[in-house]
Design a protein that fits this description.
Rossmann fold, 6 strands, alpha+beta, 5 helices
Length: about 110
């Protein structure tokens, strides 16, 4: 991140910036990026598979499926159980935490008999 910021970019592009980090480090990275975005007026484009983390820190979510943007908008409108099931075939529950943030939790499928 420091190397990218040294170039004084208008847009910071990141691929899975929190991948392989523990929960505390994930939050530190995302909070740092969010602070830089606000303080320096930098645009941020980031990919992630963590929909809950994305919902907490982004203004606009772009869902990508089969190499195309299939949905775009505020997290509360895009990250719904129906939309996620339609594009990813995943059965999820979307909850709201006490602060109003979204939690996207996969449901466990019943085990099938062999």
């Amino acid at each position: 991140i420091a190397r990218a910021l040294a170039q004084q970019p208008e847009l910071l592009v990141m691929d899975e910036p929190t991948s392989a980090l523990d929960l505390a480090a994930q939050l530190d990275v995302m909070e740092t990026i969010d602070r830089l975005r606000k303080d320096r007026g930098i645009g941020v484009l980031s990919s992630t598979h963590d929909l809950t983390l994305a919902a907490r820190f982004v203004d606009v979510v772009h869902l990508v499926a089969r190499g195309r943007i299939v949905e775009a908008g505020p997290p509360s409108e895009v990250l719904t159980a129906d939309i996620i099931a339609t594009h990813y075939g995943a059965d999820v529950q979307v909850l709201t935490d006490p602060t109003g943030g979204l939690i996207v939790a996969p449901r466990r499928s019943p085990r099938r008999s062999p």
